[in-house]
Amino acid sequence: RLRTFSRERRATHFMTLLAAFQAVLSRTTGQRDLLIGSPIAGRQQSETEALIGCFVNTLVLRAELDGEPSFGQLVARVREQALEAYRHQALPFDLLVEELAPQRDEGRNPLFQVMMAFQNGLDAEPRLGDLKVDPWLAERHVSLFDLTLSWIDGRRGLEGSLEYATDLFDATTVKRLAGHLTTLLEAALKTPETAVSELPLLGAAERHQLRHEWNDQSRAKAHFASVHRQIEIQAELTPDRIALICGDEMLTYRDLVERAGRLSRHLSSLGVGAGSLVGLCLDRSPELIVSLLGVLGSGGAYVPLDSNDPADRVAFVLEDAGVEVILTRSGSQAEPSRVELGSTGPRVVRVEEALELGADAGRGLSGDGSGAALDSLAYVIYTSGSTGRPKGVAISHRALAAYTSSAIARYGLDAKDRLLQFASISFDASVEEIYPCLTLGATLALRSDDLLDSVAKCLSSVAAWRISVLTQTTAYWHEMVRALSAGETRLPRTVRSVLFGGEAARSESVRLWFEHVVPEVDLVNTYGPTEATVVATSHRVAASEPLSVIVPIGRPLAGARAPVVSSTLRSVPIGVPGELCLAGDGLARGYVGQPALTASRFVPDPFMGCGARLYRTGDRVRHRDDGSLEYLGRLDRQVKVRGFRVELAEIESVLERAVVAVAHSIARAIEASATAHE
């Protein structure tokens, strides 16, 4: 097919193979403009063909893949580029480098770092008189370029080999690259009018590994009871077990469910039911947890409001969500007196009054004992709005129950655990702390605001409450590692597991944790946008694994899938950056009142079909060889610098180091000036 195709396109085998190599490199690196070196014999006249000596020169061939060319169009471009280069093949490469004067680096070849060589005319067996000559592969321990693809068209057909720099690649990666080249070339020769970006790269084995082995779908369709129903059952099984600790106050599971049931029935009497949205404007207290369960039991959905938010944000959330009722408490700092509700605004209900009014209504969380339907709404959490208008993310009971079940299994939680409720209720990390704990019959301790004054103060309370599982933001975990490694405090012996997430973790903090802090405690890095119900992937960081610059975010939880795709929603190979998508029972219903945005971010799942959806996170990741995902940054936080895509975070990091360097210089200058003055 290669010979026939090349002949039909008036191209050489070299041109067709170079086009395939360019296509694979472009798809692998994400670059549309590539420079590849190629040796040329340099014997343009017949008189030089029999001369002994080295006439070889190096050509630099440019690949431009802008405009979504088909493979046939790319071969035509390569043919034109190659013929133009052949006309100037007598110009020595060294002279070209001297003339262009690129910025030089002793560790890199100028102008190009990838080579492709092609040898033909080797059909006849070489002889020296009566001597028979056999080829012998000479071992070479230094790679001349980052990557060299060599083709030999001889007696045994067309053979290719890849030589690579071991500082940059390993054998597994290069073997995959060879497989991608073969797969793409076979497909391109069959359907040359297919766009290069649409040609397949993955072989059957790698495709199966990505879609099935690393994204287990067997548990994705499990059915769950709603979380408040599970908590109600737990109260029936262990009524006297401690459910909540808040300062000196404790609530048993019997107390918790009875109070939540009273509130639930009072809300129902006010007309709250399926589709109703109830705002929660409460300080962290037992009444807050009671209110969460009371709203869920009534069939409504809760919208958490942070008392520290500006009044205009609170007003925006209330109006945008269409909140009908606000739950608050007399004397609470979170009481919404500063929000101008107006005569047609939400009805304000004080929890303590509602509990009195619902006191004689019986037991249980829901009047008929059935609770909400799994596909009805459980809560709406609004994003920060740091990148524009805040978005209300709508989470169903099914998604909440699916996440809760998966989190219990992934983190190994049991009824003997004690968890700290650390996050703000308006941040979905609070969901991670509350529901897995209470559905199990474990104990939840609510922190006070003053625990944030210092890590030492926080860990002192952790010790007093005998907390076994800590969940924190990555930023707070970094601060905790600093305090622990500096000897300012110690991690209580009761803590067996620390979970953190919310942003990229620093490898230096991981190193300090295992070298100087608490290597025997489970350390789990988690990842998940609000749109996928709290956490979608997690990675248990082990002391034995190699410390890389990027701390992995791991693999998807049970019932979730995390395909990494190209801009056209095709699976990208292992190790190649792409956009992380999420799928499974944990996906949100969408954004409140924003159908167009919902349709653009929650798209049909091309891998599953049958109405399945994918959430496009906008996060750039890649698979490691072991299946773990590495977070590389946001797709919308990249800028183009000299033709390369650069993360804004990298630019910010450079600027930060520059500012620190200037600050140190100023400090030294002031110190020197003071010394001179003295």
Give the integer mean of the pLDDT values: 88
Beta-strand percent range: 15-25%
Helix percentage range = 25-40%
> CA-to-CA gap between the ends?
85 Å
How many beta strands in the DSSP annotation?
A: 31
Tertiary shape: elongated
Task: Calculate Rg over CA atoms.
Answer: 32 Å
Structural class: alpha/beta
Unreliable runs: 338-343
Major sheet summary line: 6 strands, antiparallel
Count of separate DSSP helical elements = 18
Keywords:
alpha/beta, 6-stranded antiparallel β-sheet, 18 helices
Characterise this structure.
- This protein is an alpha/beta fold.
- 35% of the residues lie in helices and 23% in strands.
- The chain has 18 helices and 31 strands.
- Strands 23, 24, 25, 27, 28 and 29 form a six-stranded antiparallel beta sheet that branches.
- β27 (602-604) and β28 form a beta hairpin.
- The model is unreliable at 338-343 (pLDDT under 50).
Strand and helix layout:
Elements: H1 2-8, H2 13-29, E1 33-40, E2 57-64, H3 71-87, H4 93-100, E3 114-122, E4 127-128, E5 131-132, E6 147-154, E7 157-164, H5 171-190, H6 204-213, H7 227-237, E8 242-246, E9 249-252, H8 253-269, E10 277-280, H9 286-298, E11 301-304, H10 311-321, E12 325-328, E13 347-350, H11 351-357, E14 377-382, E15 392-396, H12 397-411, E16 418-421, H13 429-440, E17 443-446, H14 455-464, E18 469-473, H15 474-485, E19 497-501, H16 507-517, E20 522-527, E21 537-541, E22 555-556, E23 560-561, E24 564-565, E25 578-584, E26 590-591, H17 595-601, E27 602-604, E28 613-623, E29 629-634, E30 638-641, E31 644-647, H18 648-677
Parallel strand pairs: 3-6, 8-17, 10-11, 10-12, 12-13, 16-17, 18-19, 19-20
Antiparallel strand pairs: 1-2, 4-5, 6-7, 8-9, 14-15, 15-26, 20-21, 21-22, 23-25, 24-25, 25-28, 27-28, 28-29, 30-31
Helix pairs in contact: 2-3, 2-5, 7-8, 7-13, 8-9, 8-11, 12-13, 15-16
